[in-house]
Amino acid sequence: MKTTHRRTLKTASAAMMAVGMLAFGVSAASAHVNVAPDDPAAGGYTHLTFNVPNESPTAKTNKLEVSLPTDFPFNSVSVKPVEGWKAELVTTTLPKPVTVAGATVTKAVTSVVWTADAEHQLGENEYQAFSLSVGVLPDAGTTITLPATQTYTDGSVVKWDQKTVDGQPEPEHPAPSFVTTASDSAASAGPTSSPSVTPVPATAASTSSNDAGSTAGWFGLAAGLIGLAAGVTALLRTRPAKAS
């Protein structure tokens, strides 16, 4: 019994350590300003969500600026309102004209600036999500880097603009980025030819499905009864014998 008890304690301790390490990893990764697109398909539009944590124990975050690409600028940028934060879309002249969706673009939104009022500044252990709707996205496999600048109430500024290189340790202040994927139309087109498929009558398919479901149900019930019996047997064996 002592051996079994010790093994149980060791197993529980190992599980707790694993959970703790996983939680620590998630916490460490989430301490950066990062971006998450909901649909990065080339040629389409996507919602970008920037998660911004406050990392200072003494100052609050009161401003965030995100830079948008100029080599493949977005021809559409809109911002989702955040309570207590004023958003400004900054339009500038591009370094050189770019063709986007068949049109020549010379000016575009190149940055978005969010500024908080005094009541909604981010304090210690707080974060805020900022969202943009942008498009159109460039060709599949393109890495879109969106450098961010985070400003604190004590005047300190953190630039999240360092490039992440595959095979190398993550920099201290990595720039938010994502990679575009194949366009939705290309993904939905599938292979040019497909194997022949013999259609199955609806009644036959329904009967087969019902039979399979019934069989699976009986097997599940039987497995449950066997497990219950095993549990009762184990419980009876572990009870101390009564003194005669």
Automatic annotation (TrEMBL):
Transmembrane intervals: 216-236
Domain YncI copper-binding as annotated: residue spans: 32-178
Originating species: Arthrobacter methylotrophus
Compositional bias (Low complexity): 179-209
Cross-referenced InterPro entries: YcnI-copper_dom (IPR012533), YcnI-like_sf (IPR038507)
Record region (Disordered): 164-211
ATP-binding among keywords: no
UniProt keywords, alphabetically: Membrane, Signal, Transmembrane, Transmembrane helix
Name of this chain's protein: YcnI family protein
